[in-house]
Design goal:
Elements: H1 3-25, H2 42-58, H3 68-80, H4 95-106, H5 119-131, H6 135-158, H7 179-188, H8 192-197, H9 204-221, E1 239-241, H10 242-254, E2 263-264, E3 274-275, E4 289-291, H11 294-306, H12 317-323, H13 327-343, E5 351-356, E6 361-366, E7 369-379, E8 390-399, E9 403-405, H14 407-420, H15 424-427, E10 430-435, E11 438-443, E12 454-457, E13 466-467, E14 481-483, E15 487-489, H16 492-500, H17 504-512, E16 518-531, E17 535-538, E18 541-544, H18 552-558, H19 560-563, H20 567-589
Parallel strand pairs: 5-16, 7-14, 13-15
Antiparallel strand pairs: 1-4, 2-3, 5-6, 6-7, 7-15, 8-12, 8-16, 9-11, 10-11, 12-13, 17-18
Helix pairs in contact: 1-20, 2-6, 3-6, 3-7, 4-6, 4-20, 5-6, 5-20, 9-13, 10-11, 13-18, 16-17
Length: 591
Amino acid sequence: MSDGGARSRHRSLQWRCAFALSLVALVPSTTFSQASPPTPTPDTLQAAIGAALTTAIASGAPDPTLDKAGQALVRNLYLRAEQRPLWLTDGHDSGRIDALIDELLQAPTQALRVEGYGLANLAAALDRVRVQPTAVALADADIRLTAAFVAYSTDMLMGQVDPATVTTSWHITPRRSELDAVLASVLAAVDAPAAFARLRPQDESYAALIASLAEYRQIMRRGGWPTLPDIGVVRPGDTVTAGFAGALLGRLYAEGYLSAPTSLRPAADGDTTIAATATANSQQGTNTPVLYDTVLSTAVKGYQRQHSLAIDGIVGPSTRRSMNRSASDRMRQIAANLERHRWMPRDRGDRYVIVNVPSFRLRAFEAGREVLAMNVVVGAEYGGRSTPVFSDSMSYVVFRPYWNVPNGIAARELWPKQRADASYFSRNGYEYVRARWGSYVRQKPGGDNALGLVKFIFPNDFAIYLHDTPSQALFADRVRAVSHGCVRVEAPDALARFVLGWDSDRVQAAMQTGPDDRRVNLDAKLPVYIVYFTAYASAGTMLFADDIYHRDEAVMRAIEAGTFPSEEARRAVDALRRARVAHRTAGAVRP
């Protein structure tokens, strides 16, 4: 037998010993007493536990730490099991309990608030089972395990907060109706740790965010990082004070952009070198002129690359403002994006497209692997033009499309120009169309069309789609939030090849010489996700993006308790950890 199998078997035997002891420790109660109670058998004990479960569940509030929806999920799980224990069953595999407790103990590492999991009560219930495993105690512990399982799993599968309570612009709705079946499948899984792991978002960014959160907690424990003073724009090769350079060095060292403390070169020739520690706390010599050299500017470029800033090594207002965000604020940002991942559906399909608005990037996936990536232009942050967060399925592509100009855009932007210059419409390919249902302005197909030579349609309530654009210069800009809400793609031909499965020649022919306004239906609908993540991973690197629509703060406030656990929460986690150790120790010494 493997070491893992032996350990699993050993744990199972520990719990079986607990049940053996419970046969002796079972005491009469008003519910189960008899005049001369016989020595209970495993069957009678299980019946007694079942009766205690039935009584507790029938009370209407199996665990007071849960809300009404959670209470209903607990009752439904026991109903599926015909009111039998879900965890503390005779002959059960205790690895499932260990797997659940492992997940609960790791909840704070994912910025999950543990106050709703009843950990202190669960620890006390497990201790009672260890000391006096009566039917009532076993039933209570089983229910508390189930309640913690339901609360944790619900947070993991749907998020701690309803996105509708913190933003009006997130329209990817968690599927609460599927919770019953998902939780039941986890309980029935043979490999419990793997089943629990699958509750977590499987996106590479989720794991990277967890690791990053731990790193920033360590940075906070070490005191954070220095604040950069405002001395104007600093360019590579400039002379700065040792105080500013030391603060910059300490700031870069704190996040790992410099691997070790270094020294600062003097601004003028000479034999003196000004040593600077990573913390740069000493005020001695802070006004001495030193050179902002290649070592520091290269590290600054590394910082800029990971924070969606212009990669020029210049410490200007944007870079200084980004660097001066505190470690605790970065933790809050990371936690907010962990929560956004939990709002996302777990099964996104075998092939899908995802657009992250703050990063201005589109990525296409097939069989779990990224096969295409490109820059995009998204909606401007003003005038109701922001691109909403939602998901839908792409169903067709239109080559050489007309642009039917929305009436609002036509009224604001086109008609004033036409009134000022009667040739404006004809010179720019616009025409006024009268139809039975009304009139509108449209732009003729061609290279100058605002939609370019192809658009990708996934019908939705927001009239948002992906499309080509003649304004290719925009893709070189760092901030690309200038559209009316739709998403302009940098490489429409490559996206068309992925979407339709066509070769390059066929796509180019359809775009350049094919018939106008040609619709091509997809063989199978393709999921498209428009998302909003300001902290994410790409190719194994943690990246931060600007909060272009100012949506982070509301999420950060809503999950503050998970980002910064209270002393009470830490005590509850410690109590559960001690209870598990005590159970293992007690099992190890039993005959």
